[in-house]
Amino acid sequence: MNTMVTSQIDTNTMLRLQSQGIRMKSEGNTANGRKGGAGPSDHKAINLAGQTIMVPTYNHESQDSPFWATEPNELGVSILYDKDDKLGSITFPHQPNFYAKSTSDGVPLWKIATLHSKDVLATTVLQNCIRYNDKETSCQFCAIGESLKADKTIAYKKPFQLAEVAKAAVELDGVSQFVMTTGTPNTKDRGASLLLESVIAVKEAVDIPIQVQCEPPNDFSWFQKLKDAGADSIGMHIEGATQRTRDEIMPGKATVTLDYYDRAFEAAVEVFGKGQVSTYILAGLGDTQDEIIDKSRSLIDLGVYPFVVPFVPIVGTPLENLASPNAAFMEPIMAEVGGLLYEAGMTSETVKAGCAKCGACSTLKSFEKQRELLKTA
Ligand code: SF4
């Protein structure tokens, strides 16, 4: 059967693509992909049927994927196949113009921040973490040190460097938001002060929505300081839906317990508002479908957007050989959580900045839309 995708890719195919990845016949016009690092590492952004999604292309699993793509033609268009079935044409976002520039102190801008999806600027302010490289404390899925080792970034991005990259990315490439994450420093604020000075510098240079991401700080007054500085939303990422999974997979980070996260979420929602606080849940680390759905429901009740993504193994990490959850595992979770988000009025579209706004690493946005269509049909 030859199924051409013309206007909209179905959610099951999206789930399968994000879990199984794509075998690339050629690197082609593919600057917008990354190996290692925080966020969608070992992923590549693809434009498919009017949507941009992040799909694994560099990890072990994608090398055995039934999905494969031809070498891009002169217009940068590839054809995507599922085994022998032709699914349709895909393109890759072009290398952004700001990648050719450098900071005023000579650092290439692509080492300061990268383009995610098609119009999101993203950076890891501190490319180190107190928990990394220590078997007792490290998160087993994390690759924060890999891009640093590969000289693809610098260890600490100074506020003026972030301001310069933001200005250039807005002016030269029309980026629509800035996502700032950080490794966790050995300080009680867990990165909040680093983010604060970064936000102040960027907002002075250019008016762009910003999401900051860090572990919950010791003192919740940081939320108001971040908001006053210009942060539009905040992400604090639990990753595991249960303390059991967190203790096993991320023993250091799990010492900041789910109970503490809930208290931080409540305080952050007070400041940033319902739906402007989010968290990542990586499905496939050991939590059951029900555990992920139950945790998501309680987060939504708190006003927190649970950004559920399929776990994707990254080469070079302890979990590099753990398989991604398949579409059959993901589908009921996404349908339920997408529906709950729609019913709560906390859809991706209502988020001002961040991964939930971008949505390229998850299919949740499509499931929110699916629920909307069902309700309005
Ligand atoms: S969802 Fe977040 S991590 Fe994924 S591409 Fe978008 S901004 Fe980057």
Q: How many E strands? A: 14
Q: What is the level-2 CATH architecture name of the largest domain? A: Alpha-Beta Barrel
Form type: globular
As a percent range, the share of strand residues is 15-25%
Output the helix-strand order.
Answer: HEEEEEEEHEEHHEHEHEHHEHEHHH
The gyration radius over C-alpha positions equals 19 Å
Major sheet description: 7 strands, mixed
Classified by CATH, the class of the largest domain is: Alpha Beta
Proportion of residues in helical segments: 25-40%
Name the bound molecules. Answer: iron/sulfur cluster
The structural domain count equals: 2
CATH superfamily of the largest domain: Aldolase class I
Give the topology:
Blueprint lengths: L10 H10 L2 E2 L8 E2 L8 E6 L2 E6 L10 E3 L7 E6 L2 E7 L17 H4 L1 E3 L3 E5 L21 H4 L9 H15 L3 E5 L10 H14 L4 E4 L7 H9 L3 E3 L7 H7 L8 H15 L4 E7 L5 H14 L1 E7 L16 H17 L11 H4 L5 H13 L1
Parallel strand pairs: 1-5, 9-10, 10-11, 11-12, 12-13, 13-14
Antiparallel strand pairs: 2-3, 3-4, 3-7, 5-6, 6-7, 8-9
The chain binds iron/sulfur cluster (SF4).
The site of iron/sulfur cluster (SF4) has 12 residues, from strand 9 and helix 11.
